[in-house]
Specification:
- The protein is 90% helix and 0% strand.
- By secondary structure, it is mostly helical.
- The chain has one domain.
- Helix 2 packs antiparallel against helix 4.
- It is rod-shaped.
Length: 124
């Protein structure tokens, strides 16, 4: 009987410890999350996100600003959530920008091929 109670007691302490660790992590500053999101926004700007995905860039910047305000208000859970959303929006903007650039390069290449074919046909 003593071993059975000891198992339950150990399980109870384990659950309590897990909850304590989980709750304490919500109280620590989300500085790293916000910094990663800031870098993602900067990368998206560098990739041309402002030109090719303005809506996503505006959303990313707005959410990053709100995350910074949440950090200042010490609402770290909200700051983490907003930082993650800002990072997702920035990555989407960067992806759209990269895709648009690749499409433009492919279109230019297709035009070059068309011109070369026209020259070949004219010379034959």
């Amino acid at each position: 009987m003593m071993t059975y109670s000891r198992c339950w007691l150990t399980a109870l302490f384990s659950v309590a410890a897990a909850l304590a660790v989980g709750c304490s992590s919500l109280k620590t500053p989300a500085t790293a999350d916000v910094a990663v999101s800031k870098a993602a926004v900067a990368n998206a700007v560098g990739a041309g996100g402002v030109e090719y995905a303005p809506a996503e860039m505006t959303s990313a910047r707005d959410k990053l600003e709100l995350a910074n305000k949440a950090m200042a208000a010490k609402d770290y859970k909200l700051a983490r959530d907003l930082a993650a959303q800002a990072q997702a929006d920035a990555k989407l903007a960067q992806g759209k920008a990269n895709s648009a650039k690749a499409q433009a390069a492919a279109d230019a290449l297709q035009e070059d091929i068309r011109v070369l074919r026209a020259e070949l046909e004219r010379n034959l």
